[in-house]
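Budget justification aside, the reviewers requested a transparent look at the raw inputs and outputs of the sequence design task funded under Objective 1. We therefore reproduce one unedited record. The lines immediately below are the structure tokens for a 114-residue chain.
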């Protein structure tokens, strides 16, 4: 059995990201490269640092804090933020009902007919 905190990340460690090409990924790369976290971290000696973001070790790494993909295909929503690691992806489960024109039309039509 896995410990709930198996992948717990040290608070002073930089956050990890995975960015796949497409869907304005160049902009996201620039933001990640230039940004640090807003919260301050201090070590035992009183030194304050602002850890930022760094790429995950592997392109397919599942140990990330943020993943950017052009499509939601292959995102395993039931595994996100499992085992104590906080994770975020740029898609919402079940978004097809609103983000495709045909499904949006059908849902709005159904809503207004009721």
């Amino acid at each position: 059995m896995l410990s709930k905190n198996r992948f717990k990340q040290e608070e002073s460690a930089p956050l990890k990201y995975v960015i796949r090409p497409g869907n304005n990924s160049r902009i996201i790369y620039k933001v990640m490269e230039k940004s640090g976290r807003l919260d301050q971290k201090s070590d035992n000696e009183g030194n304050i640092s602002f850890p930022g973001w760094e790429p995950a070790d592997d392109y397919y790494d599942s140990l990330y804090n943020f993943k950017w993909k052009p499509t939601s295909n292959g995102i395993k929503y039931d595994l996100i933020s499992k085992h104590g690691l906080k994770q975020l992806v740029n898609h919402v489960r079940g978004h097809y009902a609103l983000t495709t024109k045909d499904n949006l039309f059908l849902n709005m039509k159904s809503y207004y007919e009721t």
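The chain has a mean pLDDT of 77. Residues 15-113 form one domain. Computational costs for records of this kind are itemized in the attached budget.
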